[in-house]
Amino acid sequence: MFDSIVPLLTDPAAWAALVTLVVMEVVLGIDNLIFISILSNKLPPEHRQRTRRIGIGLALIMRLCLLATIGWIVGLTQPVFDLGWSGAGFETSFSWRDLILIAGGLFLIWKATKEIHHSVDTTPSDTGLLEKEKKDAVINNVGSAIVQIILLDLVFSVDSILTAVGMTEHVPIMMVAVVIAVMTMLLASDPLANFIDKNPTVVMLALGFLLMIGVVLIADGFGAHVPKGYIYTAMAFSALVEGLNMWSRNAKVKKEAKEAALRDQLETTKEA
To answer: For a surface tag, which of 59, 195, 212, 216 has the fewest beta carbons within 10 Å of its beta carbon?
Structure first.
């Protein structure tokens, strides 16, 4: 094991592959991190950070286990059945990877749609739950959140690992890149979740991102590959527009507060 790692430490190509993989894993992890942030923010504040850390920690273990079975992962790209009809540009043969992507995309669309409905539904919830029922609901929600984080990370893990295989054949490089990327996600999870929680309009934008990613995953499962650059460019542009809107709203609030303070000062001067 160590005999195969030592030569990599002095190989410039190995370091270049590591940096490229880290960047790729971090970028691909943005989708997952948005989902984790929205999901954990549905929990009571005292459970959010712990849920995020447990979910991301288990995701790291799962990714390392998948890398340890890299041969099996590569085999997921082999067709398992064929529909036998031409699908207007879509593939008619499906592999396990395709089925995982389609299932993950459907799950994302369902979850994002459900959260959007919850955000716009103004019907008041029942307030007659007993304390024990509330505690049981919190426990169930925490467990459900962790399970959903793991299931979705499985979808993104299979896709990112198969992409990594095409960039390097060295499993140690892939493992180091995954560890660095997941640690970055862990550090960024709390600030991102807090930012989303404090800005309701960002929540709707993030849910829109998840809908788009879900559609892209389904399209990819059917063989219609959408370049990742287009997706992240659209996300970055939308985030920039929302950032300008937030800046405009904050400037307006500050202006109104300043004008109110000036009016109070003038009224105080007149009374004096």
So the answer is: 195
Domain with 161 in it: 2-226
Where among 210, 226, 242 does a domain terminate?
A: 226
Q: Is the dihedral of CA 101, 105, 108, 110 positive or negative?
A: negative
Same domain assignment for residues 90 and 131: yes
Residues 186 and 271 grouped into a single domain: no
Strand 93-95 relative to strand 79-82, pairing:
antiparallel
Contacts of 63 (CB under 8 A, 6+ apart): 153, 157, 161, 178, 182
Q: Are 152 and 261 members of one domain?
A: no
Handedness of CA 39, 45, 47, 49 (dihedral sign): positive
**Both structure tokens of 257:** 């507060």
Cα separation, 198 vs 125, whole angstroms: 22
Name the least confident of 23-27, 257-261, 268-272: 268-272
Angle of helix 131-165 relative to helix 96-120, nearest 10 degrees?
Answer: 140
Q: What is the Rg, in whole angstroms, of the alpha carbon atoms belonging to the chain? A: 23
Count of structural domains, the chain:
2
